[in-house]
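Worked problem 6 (solution included).
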Amino acid sequence: MSILEVKNLSHGFGDRAIFEDVSFRLLKGEHIGLVGANGEGKSTFMSIVTGKMLPYEGKVEWSKYVTAGYLDQHSVLAEGQSVRDVLRTAFDELFKAEARINDLYMEMAEDGADVDALMEEVGELQDRLESRDFYTLDAKIDEVARALGVMDFGMDTDVTSLSGGQRTKVLLAKLLLEKPDILLLDEPTNYLDAEHIDWLKRYLQTMRMLLSLFHTIFHSSMMLSISSIMWRINS
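Solution. The predicted structure is:
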């Protein structure tokens, strides 16, 4: 099954063509590593694939009902949010489900309420919460934060006081906690120590689908360990 299909993609800047007539498919279960030196167009390619930039020519088509998670290192983090606050936003959908359950219980107390129908919806929402480990989410947050070194600079730290590297670690941890169907990663080992990279390798190997961008030399070991298919960009 094709999850992502790129057809006849061409793009460039001015007279410089970055890529021409590129076509490929990402199939269910594939882990793809895209390699190339700095300045060869890897990040531009990712921006086009995620819809942040339009190509000169070609089409990008995603399968329906697929959730894609992209590590956007330029995301805005609001002042006054702690590191833990940001990581908890990975579970916003589940918090909304919990709020809906509380509303349903309130509706049951009303005259003429269809209690059976309301209880059925409560059960469905409860199953969703339990399947996503909602009631142990703080332990899961701590596990991922510890594994990526986020705890080293404090879970109660205001995110606007973080360095660029610390901020990227927080965004990566949040993305992993969201558990999208497919991860889109651009240089995922930036700012990570060796022990954090080892943990990330093991985690990414469990992902159903993956599209990662790597610098040719510095990330070759990481690339080989998690990618089932490798492509190279040469301008």
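Discussion: The longest strand covers residues 2-13.
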